[in-house]
Design brief:
The complex is a heterodimer of chains A (152) and B (771). Chain A is built from six helices and five strands, in the order ββαβββααααα. Chain A is α+β, with helices and mostly antiparallel strands. Chain A has a five-stranded mixed sheet with strand order 2-1-5-3-4, with helices on both faces. In chain A, a hairpin with a 2-residue loop joins β1 and β2. Chain B has 771 residues and is an alpha/beta fold. Chain B is built from 21 helices and 27 strands. In chain B, the strands form seven sheets. A seven-stranded mixed sheet of chain B has the order 10-11-8-18-15-16-17, sandwiched between helices. The longest helix of chain B has 28 residues. Classes of the chains: A alpha+beta (152), B alpha/beta (771). Chains A and B meet through α1, α3, α4, α5 and α6 of A and α6, α7 and α18 of B.
Amino acid sequence: MANTLTINGKPVATDAAPDTPLLYVLRNDAGLHGPRFGCGLGQCGSCTVHVNGEPVRSCMRPVSSLTVRDEIVTLEGLGTPEKPHKLQSAFIEEQAMQCGYCINGMIMQAAALLAKNPKPSVPEIKAALHDNLCRCGTHLRIVRAIQRASQA
Amino acid sequence: MNAIHGSGFPRRDFLKGAGTLVVGFALGGRDFAAAAELGPYGPPDDQIDSWLAIHEDGTATLFSGCCELGTGSSTGLLQIMAEELGLPMTRVKIHFPDTDLTPDQFVSSGSRTISLHARPIRQAAAEARAALAELAAKRLNVAPDRIVTADGVASVRGAPGRSVTYAALIGGKTFDLKITGKAKPKPVPEYKIVGQPVKRWDIPEKVFASFTYMQDVKVPGMLHGRVVRPPAHDAKLISIDESSVAHIPGLVKIVRAADLVGVVAMREEQAIAAAQALKVTWSDWTGLPEMKDLHSVIRNLPEFAEGYPAESPGGVLAKSGDLDAGLKNSAKVLKATYLSPYHHHGSIGPSCAVADVRADGVTLWCGTQTPYGMREAAAKFLGLTNDKVHLIYYEASGCYGQNGADDVIIDALVLSRAVGKPVRVQWSRADENGWEALKAARISECEGGIDASGKIVAWNTQTYGLSGYSRPEYHEPKHGGEPGSLVTAQLAGWDKPGLEEGFSGAAGNFEPVYEDLPNKRVVFTYLGPTSHRQGPLRIRVGSMRGVGSPDNIFVAECFMDELAAAAGMDALAFRLKHSPRARGVAVLKAAAEKANWQTRVSHAHNPQGDVARGRGIALLGSNTDTNVAGIYEVAVNRKTGAVRVERVVIAQDCGLVVNPDAVRNQIEGGIIQSTSRALMEEVTFDRARITSLDWLSYPIMRFDEIPDAVEIVLVDRPDLPPMRVGEPASESAWPGIANAIYDAIGVRMRQMPFTPARVLQALNSPRQAAL
């Protein structure tokens, strides 16, 4: 069944089966590296993207629930080296990663937070990231990066 | 792009230009593309050209044999090369391991990339700079000792106008020189790049998603594979019902090699659906012990009948004086038993590999830590010679030790061989947790005595453990590897033994850090190598951040704390009394000062109320290694048993610091990861298999649980070589936290993890109350 999705402002056609998780269309049909496979269970957050501005676990979201009218934004669509999102700049400034595998989710989750709450407190940042896991233990730097971005 | 990956172009083309590859140009000097130049373990390591190249555009590429595990070590290697070559960081790039291009640097593990593997890179760069000075001297018609080099330019000292660029001297050409060992690396006081908090080259690519992790690798015509594992560790395959997946579109093949079962499909989600739907009948197997009996089972296993691995010390690791006499003469004797569980590595991205097995050769894309060892293991598995396998390394999700990165390669080889096309195998979360090598569970029994003055006069620790090492590569300096250590090879019917060098890893940092411990005995009883499919316990163990060392430090530094309390002494003063080595004293004092250490007998402050606070300390290190003192401040809720680590202070002397920000990042991360392991992590299993297969059954620390602060004092010792960074600081966490809990509530936590249930149990234990 052919479906067209709007990914980072561009139409992407896919013939993936309706129950296919959005993650595989993003990675394999659209060729994106931002959303990452971590658990396939909605438990770790590394696959996070925005759908109409809301953070969504793309490993759990079937493509059949999406239409061309839904705005899907991935880390690639959030900003570029030429026009970086302030979180992307802040994560570089704070060197807020080690392996970086979880960082897609951290930035996408934090971007959704800042869109609603531009000046979050540290407890608000930690609460927003509660369901995003980092194994390298970069939490302190991630919080600092989000604080830096909120002050930018 | 600062990293270059295998492109399929021969080595000479990399010399031409960093980004743009021009094929077919003429080149003087050595041509590494010739197959004869590549031995079974890659380019010869005694040639400058094996290590680096200077391109026509004046940039340089480092051909690194080291894998980047997400620690930032590749930026450190580039700093070291740039410093020696006299190039700015903006003009250096790294080529990750590739068996057509990079030298064999064995295994990137044990926090040794900078401390050990940077040495030949530094020497090659120093030799290259000396050669550039010679070339410039000829070009500028002066004596070589009048040439100075900086920023990619060689000029005449005192006459900066007389100069020539590196690009003009050798850009795009080879040095064609042996490494003599005669070139002297720069004196440390002249360092301008090493020692600076240079920003990591990879972080921008990762925040803009242009970075290619192993999990992102795609090759033309690639199919997607998934594996179907037995529901019990040593269950045998009985039958496969192929009709169970007949309805799955895109299914290409169901593959079986002995007990290794997999599916291959056109699309990834089709492979996942097929793996989930495939009906496989397995034999029953329930050979695991009850989880509650684990440590008594380990304690009662027989010593490994075949003895200790050749390169490891025998059962008695340290011995001095007369232990029995020391115990007899003690005013007080303490006994304690410490237990540690299995841990998952917990890589956020499960393991992944792509294999293309063809009649004329094999290409492998993978996230191994041991490129040449794994290449040889893969070649042996397929019955090929090394030169028929081209292995290309890509950075994967952080691994912290031996996760499934090597095992998934065997899966990919088996599936690709069956379909004759490139196949990508991505492990699921349950594949990773269920079949990776785990951090080994251990049991240690301690007995110690103090005299009337509070001096230790007897020290006895006896540890029981299985092999903590099941990688496919031989122990350095022997090149190559064997597939038998990999559980996937075992599943696929490979019946030759793996490598068994586990004891050395299991016993790291076994010797107490205190010089003044008379009548000492430290014994490790080796119970042999094991995996899910072989050996005495059928739970596979491997290396994880420090291997056995964190367990040894846990035991030694907890017991030290128990003896301090028995002596009625402050924990810091007691440690100083027993003569840590000089660098140990320095970090102890630096940490105590930063933390504003409260000098008193632990728990003498007897805090009241539901939430009790306490502080604990731990020390580790040696003369030739990193020294760390960690101070942990905890809050313990007596009603719930919940422990929160509020503040951590680390003082670390790791010799010369190459990149202080990267070192701090590693310390912060190591502390948070180890705190998570101390407080909540424990692999669970039933009689058939591992059951902690997701993040609900194996929770790790979340943002609201992390310490409020990790404060770091770097004791910079530029007079010493750079030492290990990734592991040591993290190893202070388990005893530091246990000792802090004692200070807060007066009970000893001797079994990890220190969960609320265990804390409550300890609080309510009459034996504990009597301490």
